[in-house]
User: Which sequence fits this backbone?
């Protein structure tokens, strides 16, 4: 397939964009990456995603697909001959979708809540929420992985991607607050999983380095008033 | 194999209604367990420990929570009368609109109905913008699913009912037949479809419920100012 038939509109710091890139990597799909500039939106983005005007947007044969988890499912279904991203059993798929929705609806807001929290008390409350979420996810990891390395089993899958994309920002939060949020003592399964996820072939080239992301975070928080929120 | 399908719901939960409609469209036999959310059953707490909410579908002892997740599970497990299209891009589009309904439409409509005066006027702007997107999406189609009810119709359908209830309670027309001809027609066509028509919760009870909810919300908002 010609490279230009597949475009991904995104930005390197966005965990949501990373989800799409990991999915494309799993299927070994070549694509053109269009880096959006912070603080401005390209004409192509505004045309391809008129509803939300956000990244990531996948454009395949000139047809746009929006919303990161929807893109991941699309990649899995459109390139069905490659390694599977979602599990094959309908119940396992439902469980993966449930936890991915939990991550987007509950867990990620607690992590971004930490970044926005003002004062010690608010920060502590936010951190507690993140850690509580990790306890739930640790249990989910145990059930989904069934003793293997990933939520998806032997290979990374939908739920690994849904959660793993946030590891870069998690490390930035830990660094900037001088705390451990993903604690190997409390959540050993997830701690081990995190390292393996970041080392995976489909992930390592698109996971930003913590230092680079920390520098970006500082710029982002300083320019808070003008900067658009990351993706969707 | 004998299938055992149970649905935990309340009489009014619109999210549970989506599941009822899906099960009926596919002709699946199931047992209903009505929950009292002020006194949740041990079963509900066991089956949905994360959210402790309805709906929960239990299939042969295995629970699934979150209505849109349940709809996809039903579609993948029982292949008759498919809810999602076959084509991957069309599926992605359907999921997109269902999520848009969930994330944007509901909250923007609700905002209009719980506000008053100038705040209400301001709340109308995003609500109408969101409805315009849906109006566009209906071009050339009777239902979001095409000729027949599909995933997006089930995801958005109760919204049509809620809108008509709220319009009656507040005396404000939001889905104007002139501004939104396709959406108005869809709301009617969806409500008239046999399976849907037979499964709405009683309208008078819903009016009482939403009137009370709206009043309580307005009081709470005034108190917190």
Assistant:
């Amino acid at each position: 397939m010609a490279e230009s038939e597949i475009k991904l509109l995104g930005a390197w710091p966005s965990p949501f964009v990373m989800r799409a890139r990991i999915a494309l990597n799993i299927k070994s799909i070549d694509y053109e990456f269009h880096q959006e500039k912070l603080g401005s939106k390209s004409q192509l983005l505004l045309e391809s995603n008129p509803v939300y005007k956000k990244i990531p947007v996948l454009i395949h044969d000139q047809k746009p697909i929006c919303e990161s988890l929807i893109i991941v499912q699309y990649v899995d279904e459109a390139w069905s001959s490659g390694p599977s991203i979602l599990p094959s059993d309908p119940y396992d798929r439902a469980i993966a979708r449930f936890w991915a929705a939990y991550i987007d609806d509950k867990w990620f807001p607690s992590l971004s809540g930490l970044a926005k929290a003002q004062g010690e008390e608010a920060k502590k409350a936010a951190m507690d929420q993140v850690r509580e979420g990790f306890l739930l996810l640790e249990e989910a990891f145990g059930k989904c992985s069934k003793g293997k390395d990933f939520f998806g089993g032997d290979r990374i899958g939908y739920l690994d991607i849904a959660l793993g994309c946030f590891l870069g920002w998690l490390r930035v939060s830990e660094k900037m607050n001088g705390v451990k949020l993903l604690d190997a003592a409390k959540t050993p399964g997830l701690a081990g999983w995190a390292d393996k996820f970041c080392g995976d072939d489909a992930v390592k080239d698109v996971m930003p380095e913590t230092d680079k992301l920390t520098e970006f975070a500082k710029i982002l928080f300083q320019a808070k008033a003008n900067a658009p929120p990351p993706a969707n | 194999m004998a299938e055992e399908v149970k649905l935990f719901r309340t009489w009014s939960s619109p999210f549970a209604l989506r599941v009822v409609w899906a099960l009926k469209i596919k002709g699946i036999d199931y047992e209903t367990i009505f929950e009292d959310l002020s006194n949740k059953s041990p079963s509900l707490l066991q089956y949905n420990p994360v959210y402790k909410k309805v709906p929960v579908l239990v299939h042969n002892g295995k629970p699934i929570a979150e209505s849109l997740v349940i709809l996809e599970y039903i579609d993948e497990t029982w292949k008759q009368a498919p809810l999602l299209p076959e084509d991957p891009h069309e599926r992605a589009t359907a999921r997109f609109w269902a999520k848009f309904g969930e994330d944007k439409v509901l909250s923007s409509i609700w905002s209009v109905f719980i506000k008053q005066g100038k705040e209400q006027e301001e709340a109308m702007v995003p609500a109408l913008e969101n409805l315009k997107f849906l109006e566009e999406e209906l071009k050339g189609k009777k239902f979001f699913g095409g000729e027949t009810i599909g995933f997006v119709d089930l995801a958005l359908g109760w919204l049509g009912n809620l809108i008509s209830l709220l319009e009656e309670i507040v005396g404000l027309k939001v889905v104007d037949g002139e501004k939104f001809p396709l959406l108005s027609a869809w709301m009617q066509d969806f409500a008239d479809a046999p399976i849907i028509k037979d499964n709405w919760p009683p309208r008078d009870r819903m009016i009482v419920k939403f009137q009370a909810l709206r009043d309580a919300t307005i009081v709470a908002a005034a108190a917190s100012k």
About this structure: DSSP finds nine helices and four strands in chain A.
